[in-house]
Amino acid sequence: MGFYCISSKNFPAFIDELIHQQSVIAPQLVQSKPYNPSSSEFFSFSLLKKASNLRLDYDTTILPPKKVFFPPQQVLLSFKNGEFQAVLDLYETILFGVHPYDLLAIEQTDFLFSDKYEDIHYTAQRQLTTIIGSNIQRSAEHSFFSSMNANVKPSTHDGFITKIADTYIYEVLTGKAGNLLKYGQFTDASQQQIDLAVKENERVKSKSHLNYSADEIKQGLEKSYADLELWEQLAKSCYACGSCNTSCPTCYCFNIEDKWHIDQISGERTRYWDSCMTEDFAKISLGPGKSGEAQTENFRPTTGARMRHRLMRKMVYLNDKLGTQACVGCGRCATSCTADIADPVNIINTVMEKYHD
Ligand code: SF4
Ligand code: SF4
Predict the structure, then answer these.
(1) Of 169, 200, 199, which Cα lies nearest the Cα of 186?
(2) Distance CA 285, CA 341 (A)
(3) What separation in Å is there between the alpha carbon of 345 and the centre of ligand 1?
(4) Domain range list for the chain
(5) Most buried by CB count within 10 Å: which residue of 36, 189, 276, 282?
């Protein structure tokens, strides 16, 4: 729908006007103590209060922007006397400054939350959100997005902003993004500026790389399935914290709990992010045994079985469903793993050394 430009000088006034009009969620520096001593700066998508807090030069964020549509904890419904009512806590928002790998991840969750059974808690908030992507000005330490989903271009967003020298080029893809033009001093972008923006986006590369194609990885991982010993070795230091899942933009498993109020006739149903790397994720009830005691079975009882499952989901099972890998190479799992074993680049390269033809 068109390319526009705005000078760096006028850009903060545009952002402040957006904040004035709507809630804006955007990358900002987190001031709390970093959990990983190897990095001095941590960023988070959070409610923007003023333009000067916006950090479009972020490398990546601790949690992915999926939390806007799929929060870590969310009340789904309330119930009383056998009656229930859906709880939809919705708000119009602009999600600003999303990197291309996270746009791809949102595209995947858009599909997964509306495939077969629509999840209205996700889709309703998604519809109320205007997504503006931004170019990657610097790559995160563990990122490998250049190696992932090579044939897929993000298309789920409304607009995209690229910084070139002292100008921002704003690509408008939908009416939602077009509606924002009136809040800033935009002019039409020249063909030369558009070409520079395209070049700038092509220039950016991730820090790590995989040396295998998606098909090769899929085949190699499938072959490694029976080699549980290898997977146990890879997961030897895992202490099942689940951080590699909860920091992942494409993980979407959740657990549901019903909580009763003290009146014992009313309560709430809440969902929480879940993690297939935790010990109890695959533990199921078998009902009472012969002695009457509750019986359970865990069909992924070891760290190796769970790590194998996590990688199979990303590179094999969901690949079949989505037509592309369910990993966008953001590197958050590697950064968040204090045992330093979750990096898919290291895991895949180790498996492929043994199982690549
Ligand atoms: S691989 Fe790392 S982040 Fe993932 S569950 Fe194990 S220790 Fe936690
Ligand atoms: S598996 Fe790791 S690198 Fe891949 S999308 Fe998830 S967090 Fe990012």
Answers:
(1) 169
(2) 31
(3) 15
(4) 3-66+89-203, 214-266+274-355
(5) 189
Encode pLDDT of 51-100 as tens digits: 999 999 999 999 999 999 999 999 999 999 989 999 999 999 999 999 99
Task: List, for residues 257-270, the tens digit of each pLDDT value.
Answer: 999 999 999 999 99
105 CB less than 6 Å from ligand 1? no
Mutate to test the pocket of ligand 1, among 231, 233, 244, 251 (most ligand atoms within 8 A of CB): 244
Name the 3-class secondary structure at 269. strand
How far is it, in rounded angstroms, from Cα 165 to Cα 96? 20
Q: Are 339 and 239 in contact (CB under 8 A)?
A: yes
Q: In sequence order, which residues have a C-beta less than 8 Å from that of residue 246 and are 6 or more positions away?
A: 63, 72, 273, 275, 336
Q: Taking Cα atoms as reference points, which of 145, 205, 65, 68 lies closest to residue 327?
A: 145
As a whole number of Å, the end-to-end CA separation of the chain is: 46
Q: Which ligand is nearest to the CA of 208?
A: 2
Q: Are 116 and 46 in contact (CB under 8 A)?
A: no
Contact 245, 72 (CB under 8 A): no
